[in-house]
Amino acid sequence: GRAPTMMIFSVMSGVMAAVTAIIGVVQGNKEYKKKTAERIEKYNNYIDEKRKYIQSARTEEQNVLNDSYISVDKEKDDFENFSHTLFDRLPTDSDFLSVRIGTGSTKALRKINYKVQEKLEIEDELQKKPLELFDEFANVDNVPIICDFNKSNAIGVVGNDLDRYSIMKNIIIDICARQYQSNVKLFFVVNENNKDKVNWLR
Question: What's residue 187's pLDDT?
Answer without folding.
Answer: 87
